[in-house]
Structure prediction request, 66 residues.
Amino acid sequence: MTMIPVRCFSCGKPIGHLWEKFKELVENGMEPAKALDMLDIKRYCCRAVFISHVDLIDLIAVYKKF
Prediction:
């Protein structure tokens, strides 16, 4: 499970559906910049969402309230 936003915060472009593909490309050794270019993510605001995202849901889920 991932908490990546569905749309870019600044421009509103849909980007949520590209996260899994981006993560797969980077895990297979591709540079993040080339992976973003391949996924046609050109705007700085959209690129910043992908580069700055940290997957913390697994750590937070341990401390569920109920």
User: Anything to note?
Assistant: Residues 4 and 53 are 7 Å apart (CA to CA). The radius of gyration is 13 Å. Residues 19-27 form the longest helix (9 residues). The mean pLDDT is 91.
